[in-house]
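Input structure tokens:
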């Protein structure tokens, strides 16, 4: 009798997340279309509903990288190490999208794609830190010592997240608007923003599960080839 595939629970999760993501994306697009235009910025302001949720998902990816890295250091569990790497990959993807959508919004609002604003600079630094994390893992793949060093590096990197979030309060003359507070969103803006956050987080979960499944399938294939050569 054939043993059940270890990726079966992941496949079920992917199907559920995929169906939920399609429904959420459709509702999100409709709400953004119906949302009122900003009186000052015009239609370009609607990229806010995508830009900020993408940043939240990037934060989540890097936080999970640190969390699973800490679990790996504590328990020596190889699975935690693989989860940390997967979370970093998805986090870097979302952070890349933040760095793409941000300049588009900046061009329409500030008249230029880039400014060495504190938050922009720290977002770029956060991206570089975790791209470096992925490069470190790719250059030293397979070594326990390298995995432990990468875990420590990934944990240290999250120190930039609170700096990035509070950059507006910590710096003077930031071009970014202030961080969101209760009641700071205008009429008709709350629902599309909330849907954007939920959609982005479900998309993050979907991509994370997909990346974990790819890793599991690759390891299963490597084990099969090793068994056939033995």
């Amino acid at each position: 009798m054939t043993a059940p595939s270890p990726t079966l629970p992941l496949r079920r999760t992917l199907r559920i997340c995929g169906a939920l993501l399609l429904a959420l994306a459709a509702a999100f697009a409709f709400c953004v279309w119906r949302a009122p235009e900003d009186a000052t910025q015009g239609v370009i302001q609607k990229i806010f509903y995508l830009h900020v949720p993408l940043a939240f998902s990037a934060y989540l990816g890097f936080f999970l990288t640190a969390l699973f890295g800490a679990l790996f250091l504590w328990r020596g569990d190889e699975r935690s190490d693989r989860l940390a790497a997967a979370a970093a990959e998805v986090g870097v993807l979302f952070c890349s999208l933040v760095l793409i959508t941000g300049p588009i919004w900046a061009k329409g609002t500030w008249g230029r794609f880039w400014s060495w604003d504190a938050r922009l600079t720290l977002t770029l630094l956060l991206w570089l830190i975790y791209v470096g994390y992925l490069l470190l893992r790719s250059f030293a793949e397979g070594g326990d010592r390298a995995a432990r060093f990468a875990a420590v590096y990934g944990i240290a990197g999250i120190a930039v997240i609170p700096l990035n979030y509070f950059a507006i309060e910590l710096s003077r003359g930031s071009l970014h608007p202030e961080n969101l507070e209760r009641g700071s969103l205008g009429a008709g803006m709350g629902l599309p923003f909330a849907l954007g956050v939920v959609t982005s987080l479900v998309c993050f979960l979907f991509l994370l599960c997909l990346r974990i499944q790819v890793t599991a399938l690759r390891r299963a294939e490597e084990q099969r080839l090793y068994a056939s050569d033995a």
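The chain has eight helices and no strands. The helical segments are 8-34, 48-75, 78-110, 118-139, 144-157, 160-165, 167-170, 190-229.
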